[in-house]
Amino acid sequence: MTDPVLSIRNLNIDYIGAETDFHAVRNVSFEIAQGELFGLAGESGCGKSTIAFAVSRLHRPPALIRKGSQILVGGRDVLALDEDELRRFRWSEVAMVFQSAMNSLNPVLTIETQFYDVLRTHRGMSRAAARERAAELLELVDISPDRLFSYPHQCSGGMRQRIVIAICLALDPRLLIMDEPTTALDVVVQREILQRIDVLRRRLGFSVLFITHDLSLMVQVSDRIGIMLEGELVEVDDARTIYRSPRHDYTRRLWASMPKLHGARIGQEQRP
Ligand SMILES: Nc1ncnc2c1ncn2[C@@H]1O[C@H](COP(=O)(O)OP(=O)(O)OP(=O)(O)O)[C@@H](O)[C@H]1O
């Protein structure tokens, strides 16, 4: 793989306890290429979110990244960034969409003002320029620019989540981390949002780290998938191979627990 967007090497993360420490992420290494959609799967508590938070340095005590761990984004050593560098790095290099992201919009501000806050703070944009850019970004996620003047409560859950994604894309990040981004939404809306992400990453070239419990959606949308078990990454392969010919017994059991797949992979539906 030439110049991966994300490179994780020997990542070890502990949760420090009063009596004992819990080794939540164990010697994990993987890479994500430019434009690649990488899915991370595994049972609840296996360490997926801990990795997602560490990549954007959003982990907080008691989480502690052990010495010897390495996280590079676009070749930069994320673990060595100081506070100023981190502020610039977040949003512009890596943006993160959480499960509850749609509730993270400020209820008393219009959508337009929320775009403006990000674009003014990070790019020094004027209100008029920010409005123009915000309208373009809303169109990317299939939302009419008229919505700029709505408040979050006037938008549906699916629309709010797409607005958050549009705000995340405002600064052209290299990597979008999506941790259970659509879990609170109904399945049709979930699929529509992932289809849109798939089209956008092909068009704009950003990479995606995608975490979900919806394994069939993950298989359909991902290029490669990593399987985690009790803090370790036990298998990584392209989505088709890992689904059809899993090597690890745990991966087999994981697939056995999910409903059978019907229909084409999302990316294939988009291709002519
Ligand atoms: N603040 C914390 N203090 C102590 N242990 C924690 C803390 N946060 C997470 N853990 C533990 O670390 C392990 C990994 O948690 P993590 O949230 O990364 O798992 P996950 O795979 O994302 O789970 P889920 O799919 O349920 O979100 C779990 O055993 C969890 O109990």
TrEMBL record:
Lipid bilayer topology: Peripheral membrane protein
The organism of origin for this protein: Devosia honganensis
Main subcellular location of this protein, as a coarse class: membrane
Domain of life: Bacteria
Keywords linked to the UniProt accession: ATP-binding, Cell inner membrane, Cell membrane, Membrane, Nucleotide-binding, Translocase, Transport
Intracellular or extracellular location(s): Cell inner membrane
Name under which the protein is recorded: ABC transporter ATP-binding protein
Similarity remark: Belongs to the ABC transporter superfamily.
Ranges where the ABC transporter domain occurs: 8-255
Molecular function GO terms recorded: ATP binding
SUPFAM superfamilies cross-referenced by the UniProt entry: P-loop containing nucleoside triphosphate hydrolases (SSF52540)
InterPro entries, A to Z: AAA+_ATPase, ABC_Ni/Peptide_Import, ABC_transporter-like_ATP-bd, ABC_transporter-like_CS, P-loop_NTPase
Pfam families referenced in this protein's UniProt entry, alphabetically: ABC_tran
